[in-house]
Design brief:
The protein has 378 residues and is an alpha/beta fold. 37% of the residues lie in helices and 22% in strands. It has 2 domains: 7-246, P-loop containing nucleotide triphosphate hydrolases (Rossmann fold), CATH 3.40.50; 259-366, CBS-domain (Roll), CATH 3.10.580. The chain has 16 helices and 17 strands.
């Protein structure tokens, strides 16, 4: 038996004075416990307005918002907002407060004991992979964009809310950092099981992040609400097809992770190594490329026969490995990494950078064919 929705919007409308059409018109939407529901659509369709209506940062002009079975449109909005975490693209950290003070914002408002707040701050910094001894006393100006976004997520989790609202949370970050933050957040969600409403304009991000996706037209009218796989393989109408764009089959690679495929056992060389040993191991494996690992098992360089023969310093032979995959990366990420790799393949590492295996184009070719056949049969 399915659980009752944690959040329900019933005929919710938001109209602004002097504007002929409402920004949101009679929206009905249910958000289930523990899911990531992504709102995606063209600019101006009302997705961010919808998000702000949920925690009453803006007030609805009609309809009801039900949270945990109660109509919250009539209660204290400040109390509601303290129960719901909120993460925005601009991060919104207080520049004059330390990282610890930023994360402690809501727990302080709730009058938690000081020792409980300090423990929570340290716990959350660990959760977002930031060492408390290094970062708790720093200020936002001392952080990179990716680090600041992690702190924004930690602050939203400060009072351990059941619900997170996320408005373009990774939109202002470079693509590599963005991928890493998306993966880190999905890993956290696997542990925390929060109920999340996530706004984006990027359909690829929606497919990657969402358990369900609501594709919105103007005024937050729902064009299609379904799982990413069903939307990609069976779009509801021409509007959804056009919004998805070309390459829907390739987008289905976003539904699968590197951890879901069997990694290839690439030839690895450990520093220090001998030239003859390297050539022999590559010949035995019938391959012309190997991965050089440092003493901590971190991949550093692609090694081939030409590189070995022309380089006097073996630890500098070959080309640096500049792109690495992690198990939470999507197979779309993997394909992109392989196409830009000097070796035509990619290495996979764990969260600490330790080598796990390789990902090859051949391992994806069969999956692409199978996905295309499944799409044609559906």
């Amino acid at each position: 038996m399915n659980a009752e929705p944690l959040i329900k919007l019933e005929d919710v409308t938001k109209a602004y004075p002097g504007v002929e059409e409402p920004a949101v018109k009679e929206l009905n939407l249910a958000v289930n416990p523990g899911e990531i529901l992504v709102l995606v659509g063209p600019s101006g369709c009302g997705k961010s307005t919808t998000l702000r209506l949920i925690n009453r940062m803006i007030e609805p002009t009609g309809g009801r918002i039900i949270y945990e079975g109660q109509d919250v449109t009539k209660g204290d909005p400040n109390e509601l907002r303290r129960r719901i975490g909120y993460v925005i693209q601009q991060i919104g950290l207080f520049p004059h407060r330390t990282i610890a003070e930023n994360i402690a914002t809501v727990p302080k408002l709730l009058k938690w004991p000081k020792d409980k707040i300090n423990a929570r701050v340290d716990e959350l910094l660990e959760v977002v992979s930031m060492d408390p001894s290094i970062y708790r006393d720093r200020y936002p100006s001392e952080l990179s964009g990716g680090q600041a976004q992690r702190v924004g997520v930690a602050r939203a989790l400060g009072a351990d809310p059941d619900v997170l609202l996320m408005d373009e949370p990774f939109g202002a970050i470079d693509p590599i950092t963005r991928d890493r933050l998306q993966n880190e957040f999905l890993r956290l969600q696997g542990e925390l099981k929060k109920t999340i409403v996530f706004v984006t304009h990027d359909i690829d991000e929606a497919v990657k992040m969402g358990d369900r996706i609501a594709i919105l037209r103007e005024q937050s009218e729902i064009a299609q609400l379904d799982t990413p796989e069903h939307i990609l393989t069976d779009p509801a109408d021409e509007f959804v097809e056009n919004f998805l764009g070309s390459g829907a089959i390739l987008k289905t690679l976003t539904l699968r992770r590197v951890k879901d495929i069997e990694l290839s056992p690439l030839v690895t060389l450990k520093e220090p190594f001998q030239r003859d040993q390297a050539l022999r191991e590559m010949s035995d494996a019938n391959t012309n490329v190997a991965v050089l690992l440092d003493r901590n098992d971190h991949p550093t360089r692609w090694i081939d026969e030409k590189a070995l023969n022309r380089s006097s310093s073996l630890d500098r032979a070959g080309r640096p490995i500049t792109v690495q995959l992690q198990p939470e990366d999507t197979l779309q990420d993997a394909l992109s990494a392989m196409l830009t790799s000097a070796a035509g393949m990619a290495v996979v590492v764990d969260a600490r950078g330790h080598y796990l295996g390789g990902c090859t184009v051949e391992s994806l070719a069969g999956l692409l064919i199978q996905t295309g056949q499944e799409s044609a049969d559906s």
